[in-house]
Amino acid sequence: MTKQPDVTIMTLEDVYALSQDQGIARAAKLLKLPPKVLMAYRKEYLSGGKPSDTTLTSLEGERASGSVAILKGDCAVARFTETNTIKSAAEHFGITQRAVRSMRKKSHIRVDWTAEFAKIREKVDKSARQWDTHPCLTGDWGILADAHLPFIHWPTFIRALTTFEYLGIRNIVLPGDWFDFEDISKFDFGGEQFDIAAELDIGRDVLFKLAERFDRVVFFRGNHEERLFKFLKRIARLYEKHPDLMRFQAIVGRGETETVWQQYKSFMETDGVEISNDSLAFINDDIMVCHASSTTRIPPNSEQVLGEKYRRHVIGCHMHNYGQRVGLDGKTLATRIGTVCDPDKIFYKTKRTTTHYEWVKGFAWVKDGKIGTWIDCPAWYDAMGLEIPGEE
Ligand SMILES: [Fe+2]
Description:
By secondary structure, the chain is an alpha/beta fold. Helices cover 43% and strands 16% of the residues. Residues 146, 148, 177, 222, 318, 320 line the site of fe (ii) ion (FE2).
């Protein structure tokens, strides 16, 4: 007994004649077609043998040469669903939608995967953005990390500004944790000294002052800014649930259309101040400044790893300690730059005992493509025989 081929070439007339001769059930069996599909072809023949579905139009070649390619039942149904819905396939072949789905799975026809997901993708592409928005900066930049306002260490901050002025640096980048937001810490480590509004006011005042004197101030997010976003998002959800809370909207300034992030941005921005919803920026393309999410206690281990990953020199912060090292490639420089905050004023720092490295007050800059740092460690400068930048 010969094996039935997957594709049988017959004319519609042949199909009709066979089914007349053998009966629907037996003809269907011989052709390996579901009886309902066979019925559809019979109907097509009786209506004049003209193509009535896309299955057959795609096989015009065979049709022109006088024969019709009738795919096995599963394939015919599957092909039909490529340009028609499951529902219309079910109607066309007179079978259930469940049967159409099942035959489609069994057919093993080659799938056009791009077309398969096109409609779903369209919905995603309409809303989902590409997050390639990190600032790409050029020129000379002063870098002030982790000020944790209002707990800034004023002498270090003033020293940094003096140094930048001395070096002729006209731009400042603030790589996260500009604010502390101790009142909304997820730990109960706040000193209950400043509420969010007070912190926002003080932080913004300092920012605006900087904007008056420097050409550009670029400010991006650290984990402490994220405290605010998470908090305001929760408040926003609460408002949606309890509309009577809307009378308090002036407190958080919740508008109808603005997202929490947009509100924060418009609150913080002024001429010369650019707020970025990123935790990294590139300077002159070969230096990355970041407030990394994964940071090691030992400085600058994570910066070294990031340098290898991003193939750049890395200036990191977040852990408030200091370290500098040349990477394994002998080319990339990993630097952790300390903090501009006052550790003694930070409740969670002073009231807990940890094995973390001691915080180091410091700041950094990029001048003529080179990285410079200052740290509050006079003994180190003495030992190295170095002049402290900005000092007479
Ligand atoms: Fe920090």
